[in-house]
Amino acid sequence: MFVLDTIVHRLKRGRETMAYPRGPAPALPDRHGGALRVESGKCPDDCHACVAVCPTQAITPRAGQGITLDLGRCLFCAECVAACPHDAITQTGDHRMAVRRREDLILGEPGKEEVRLAEPLDAGLRQLLGRSLKLRQVSAGGDGSDEAELNVLSTIGWDLGRFGIQFVASPRHADGLVITGPVTQNMELALRKTWEAMPEPKIVIAVGAGAISGGPFAGHPEVKDGVPSTLPVDLFIPGWPPHPLTILDGLLRLLGRLKEKAKPAET
Prior knowledge:
Radius of gyration: 20 Å
Order of helices and strands: HEHEEHEEHEHEEHEHEH
CATH class of the domain at 123-254: Alpha Beta
Strand order of the largest sheet: 7-6-8-9-10
Largest sheet: 5 strands, parallel
Number of strands: 10
CATH topology of the domain at 123-254: Rossmann fold
Number of helices: 8
């Protein structure tokens, strides 16, 4: 009788794992503004209101050419959006932000108003990986927020394993290294040893502003200002922390599972 009750209960609950990417992407929460858009043409030369309020110096004024905004340093606090009187910086509500090159996170230059989304790994490497990607995660001085969002991907609602992507305990079983945190001096050696223990070929994924640039800790003498100064990075996923959907989207793009640039969900 107990078994029958369990089956009936499961049938009533239905499927709890989201259909993404085959179905529509779930809407981001109201407090999450998604990726930013920068239209430097709207910036007058004498207005630096957004520069003054940015806590991580992610915004740089350019003489006579508006501003540039580095999403790799951005905490997505939206202070710049609120401070800008010309709507030069706006929130798009789009969860997609992962890129392959660090420079693609710099917005505001001509033709770079929005993020250029990540391209897949080369065909040879994808063929070698097949339908499986094993990842070893290392917190290199992280505050726990990026790590928490990564953990969400293994829950029933997201079920990362259905894509053949799994986190493993040993770097010797891993195809890729996922790094969070600004890479503190105390973690630099441990991070390097983890990388060296992984078999070739291997990839590196930097998750969060800390891992990409040092985030709010950039410039501190006890941190290395993120992963790029230590290891070659194949995928940058911005945010502080990035939403689980942003992380999942980046991983699937890296594996060539997402090719169409779909319209973000309405909030």
